[in-house]
Design a protein that fits this description.
mainly beta; 1 helix; 42% strand; globular
Length: 170
């Protein structure tokens, strides 16, 4: 009987010994959520008589990066993530499921590119000049933000000066 018990336990002891003597496992990918922040942002005031507008933000994420997957607000019926892309000679807007935010980097949602498309805006809700949103990320994190509502894009900070794209200072 003792002999049978030892034979029955032998495979388990071999597995235990093998796992104890195996090389160390590779470092695990962090299960911690990224830390998200909005550097800047604004919402375009809906054009007269319309209830659709767009929101623009610059998002950052710490390691391991992340994905913006949704946004909500009580001041409108719905928000979708959109991108702009050329289709032949025509610029087309389309819905996307997520916007990637690189680890330690930023994702810019700006006019002419990725943006928040906001539907069913109630203009009375925007009389205070702000819109409150909750951003939702693929890792389950959320971020509550309040953005100014503007008729036009904010101007560049005058202290920053003009941007040069060439190496000759122009």
């Amino acid at each position: 009987m003792l002999k049978r018990a030892l034979y029955a336990l032998a495979p388990l002891s071999v597995l235990t010994l093998a796992s104890a003597c195996s090389p160390a496992e590779e470092a695990q990918v962090s299960a911690e959520p990224a830390e998200y922040a909005v550097i800047e942002g604004w919402v375009r005031a809906p054009l007269g008589g319309r209830d659709v507008t767009a929101g623009f933000i610059t998002l950052t994420a710490g390691a391991p990066g992340g994905q913006l997957v949704a946004a909500t607000t009580e001041e409108a019926d719905a928000i979708e993530l959109h991108t702009m892309a050329m289709d032949g000679a025509v610029m087309r807007m389309r819905h996307v499921d997520a916007i990637d935010i690189p680890a330690g980097g930023a994702a810019s949602l700006a006019p002419g590119g990725d943006h928040l498309m906001i539907f069913g805006v109630n203009p009375a809700e925007l009389e205070d000049g702000e819109m409150s949103l909750t951003l939702e990320f693929a890792d389950g994190e959320t971020l509550a933000i309040t953005l100014p509502v503007r008729d036009t894009a904010p101007e560049l900070d005058p202290d920053m000066g003009a941007m040069s794209h060439g190496g000759d200072g122009r």
